[in-house]
């Protein structure tokens, strides 16, 4: 989950803590706004999705921000150029469903609109740990760089300052790696990922 602005991330944590019950009808949005904030002054667009193999996974996220810690359940289903994402509270309350298919983003929010961060922010963090290096590099702002040594993937700005990092599990042989932790150095949050 997410390269959020501070206010959006705080609202997300509040939603998880309060475990607000779903009331009324869910709202659906279709958006072509794929802008993601890497820093307060630098943005990036969501990359095109080309998954080399189908994915189906459930993850438990532990989110740490400003001394607070919360958890969320995430379900991911993806194939070719499409990805479906569902976010639930630890008690199973559905918070948001999102799909990204051939550049089109559709979001169904099961909570009031002002209590969830932009879905494109969540998706970019997922993409950063999932997509090939060249797909991420293609959308980075001028001067920004991406390095990957197998265990750690890092986005840095033009001054060499580390912006965001994804940690991966060690791999053996042909075993595919998976992200275990996302750190955003500018926005100050850490997401630990446990595959279920």
Architecture overview:
This protein has 196 residues and is α+β, with helices and mostly antiparallel strands. Helix content is 15%, strand content 43%. It is built from 3 helices and 13 strands. β10 and β11 form a beta hairpin. The longest helix has 13 residues, at 6-18. The chain is globular and about 40 Å long. It starts with 5 loop residues before the first helix and ends with a strand.
Helix content: 10-25%
Which structural class do you get from the secondary structure elements? alpha+beta
Q: Write down the overall geometry.
A: globular
Q: Let me know the number of strands.
A: 13
Stretches with pLDDT under 50, minimum 5 residues: 1-25
The gyration radius over C-alpha positions equals 16 Å
Distance between the termini: 16 Å
Number of helices: 3
Q: Name the average pLDDT.
A: 78
Task: Quote the beta fraction.
Answer: 35-45%
Sheet with the most strands: spatial strand order:
1-8-7-6-5-4-13-12-11-10-9
What does the largest sheet look like? 11 strands, antiparallel
Pattern of helices and strands: HEEEEEEEEHHEEEEE
Oligomer state equals single chain
């Amino acid at each position: 989950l997410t390269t959020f602005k501070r206010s959006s991330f705080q609202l997300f944590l509040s939603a998880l803590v309060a475990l607000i019950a779903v009331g009324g009808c869910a709202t659906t949005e279709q958006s072509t706004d794929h802008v993601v904030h890497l820093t307060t002054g630098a943005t990036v667009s969501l990359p095109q999705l080309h998954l080399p193999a189908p994915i189906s996974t459930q993850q438990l996220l532990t989110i740490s921000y400003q001394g607070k810690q919360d958890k969320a359940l995430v379900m991911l289903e993806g194939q070719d150029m499409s990805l479906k994402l569902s976010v639930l509270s630890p008690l199973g309350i559905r918070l948001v469903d999102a799909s990204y298919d051939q550049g089109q983003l559709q979001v169904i929010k099961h909570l009031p609109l002002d209590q969830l961060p932009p879905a494109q922010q969540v998706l970019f963090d997922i993409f950063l740990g999932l997509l090939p290096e060249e797909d991420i590099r293609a959308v980075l702002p001028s001067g920004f760089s991406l390095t990957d040594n197998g265990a750690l993937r890092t986005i840095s700005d033009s001054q060499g300052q580390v912006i965001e990092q994804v940690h991966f599990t060690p791999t053996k042989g042909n075993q595919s790696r998976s992200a275990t932790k996302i750190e955003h150095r500018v926005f100050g949050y850490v997401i630990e990922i446990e595959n279920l």
